[in-house]
Amino acid sequence: VDDSFLQCISSHSQNHSKPISEFVLAKNTSAYSSVFQSSVRNLRFLNTSTTKPEFIITPFNESHIQAAIVCAKAYDMQIRIRSGGHDYEGLSYVSEEKFVLIDLVNLRSISIDIEKESAWVESGATLGEFYYKIAEKSNVYGFPAGSCPTVGVGGHISGGGFGTIFRKYGLAADTVIDAKIVDVNGRILDRKSMGEDLFWAIRGGGGASFGVIFSWKVRLVQIPPSVTVFKVAKTLEQGASKLLQKWQRIGDKLPEDLFLHAATEVVNASSNNNKTIRVSFDSLYLGEAGKLVPVMQDNFPELGLKLENCTEMSWIQSVLYFAGFSTSESSELLLNRTAQSKGFFKAKSDYVKEPISETGFEGLYKKLLEAETSGLILTPYGGKMSQIQDSETPFPHRRGNIYKIQYMVTWDKEEETEQHLRWMRSLYSYMAPYVSKSPRAAYLNYRDLDLGRNKNGNTSFAQASVWGLKYFKNNFKRLVKVKTETDPSNFFRNEQSIPVFS
Ligand code: FDA
User: Fold this and answer.
1) pLDDT of 49 strictly over 90
2) Is pLDDT of 339 > 70?
3) Alpha helices, H only, 119-189
């Protein structure tokens, strides 16, 4: 198979300036393992028992993607598509079926047009690379996407993508004005030739069900030359619980220039040897500190924010700050594609529509204290997110949500995996009465296979609705319709791909 598959790729590729050995790696080649592992973020999926791809293809141009699709089909192999490798369940590089991995690491050019306030960015670029390139051109433009610089543009935009300025500008997917995709027949399509239905589906419906999206045209957004950040952290003993109660009531109603999220961690209590919960209120304000302090005093005086708690900086420094770097470091750090840390983790998400009672939170703190490496991030909604219709893109979690919760637990040793997965499931079950219901909504980019999975990639509409409605609500049916029209043989499939109507 090896030789004839390589022959197939060679005959379907244009631009022969690159020898095939530079972009097609068979299992016996020396670079295979390091390329496979390069962007794996969750060590749960790097063990020896996971099935590895027959070939890794790292396209240098779109004809290499076309060849990969045509030849994988011809040799009856599945494909997995990887941009930044941050999928929470490893779906971009793990499969139970025989498969070819298309890794877009070499497709990461970025072309920025400040005058037209837009950019073309290839899927294999990371968010960090994109932010860096924007800042290189201008200090008054930015892009509304996630805080982790090693996340890939391809998976992030096609699954939604939110960050510190999304209350003002919406999701990364909301900024897309054109895209280029290779479809199941190996055709290269742009917005005009793919049509509005497919263009709608790839902006939040998860790209992997529809084709390989290799480039995105997005709108850039205006940013003031100086933004302000602050962080105020309190333990339960210092009154964090009351602050969180108040935050639940104002987080989504603050002006849209102001993003204030709350994150928890388990720490040592200062007064005794016990563990406690510390809640950090982290903020980005699109303006100067002098204007922010009165806004906070009006809306959240209990936090006691003072001018000296605030730091003004450029937007790109705020990107470093939220990525956990020092703002005095060079923004070139954002070009480093290697994750700051790799580890084992499991995460889940929930949407909250009504403030959770104090009793509800008390039980939640107790659960968190059972797992020392657990944490929550509570992300306030409102602002622009409430102004966009649920049906405008497949991402449906807009008006009516006050915040989203991400639950996360990390660990270091493979043998601890089952225990942590069990704990996470029990936490999720504890939270059921307090969060959105019918469906209990979830964020696609925080993928969670506990919500349900396709068997061998093939599942009926009814079975897939169990998880599909959680991610997409009323948009699920339209996604299935687009899928049925564009990929009727269900070639692009995985454990949570959109099914076809049978
Ligand atoms: P990866 O390459 O693993 O792809 C994810 C999915 O998209 C897979 O199903 C894959 O097949 C598919 N896909 C990827 N590229 C494609 C392409 N070109 N065409 C078609 N399908 C494609 N999210 C967020 O909104 N805000 C945040 O701040 C963060 N922060 C964050 C931090 C960390 C440490 C992690 C691990 C994750 C996040 N995320 C996040 C979640 C992140 O947005 C989500 O995991 C993205 O899908 C990752 O995109 P990648 O390209 O890196 O992943």
Assistant:
1) no
2) no
3) 127-137, 153-158, 166-169
Nearest-CA residue for ligand 1 atom 27 is 146
Same domain, 18 and 158: no
Task: Among 44, 91, 151, name the best residue to mutate to test ligand 1's pocket (greatest count of ligand atoms within 8 A of Cβ).
Answer: 151
Q: Are 349 and 448 a contacting pair, CB within 8 Å?
A: yes
Question: Which residue ranges have their beta carbon within 6 Å of ligand 1?
Answer: 41, 80-88, 91-92, 104, 123, 146-148, 151-152, 154-156, 158-163, 206-208, 212-213, 445
Domain shared by 118 and 62, yes or no: no
> How many Cβ atoms are within 10 Å of 339's Cβ, its own excluded?
19
How far apart (Å, rounded) are the C-alpha atoms in residues 40 and 30? 18
CB of 154 closer than 8 Å to CB of 176 = no
48 confidence band (pLDDT: 50, 70, 90): confident
**Could you report the per-residue pLDDT of 289-332, keeping only the tens digit for each?**
999 999 999 999 999 999 999 999 999 999 999 999 999 999 99
> pLDDT-based confidence at 459, cuts 50/70/90?
confident
What's the whole-number mean pLDDT along residues 30-40?
A: 94
273 or 40, higher pLDDT: 40
**Residue 62 sits in a domain of what CATH number?**
3.30.43.10
Helix boundaries (H) for 182-313: 191-201, 240-250, 289-299
d(CA 302, ligand 1 centre) in Å: 36
Let me know: does 183 contact 189? Beta carbons within 8 Å. Answer: yes
**ipTM greater than 0.95:** yes
Please give the tally of structural domains in the chain.
Answer: 3
Question: Known catalytic residue: 351?
Answer: no
Q: What CATH number should be reported for the domain holding residue 186? A: 3.30.465.10
Q: Are residues 93 and 116 in the same domain?
A: no
Q: Which atom of ligand 1 is least distant from the CA of 123?
A: 18
Structure confidence at residue 181 (pLDDT): 98
Residue 82 CA: which ligand 1 atom is closest? 2
Handedness of CA 313, 316, 322, 327 (dihedral sign): negative
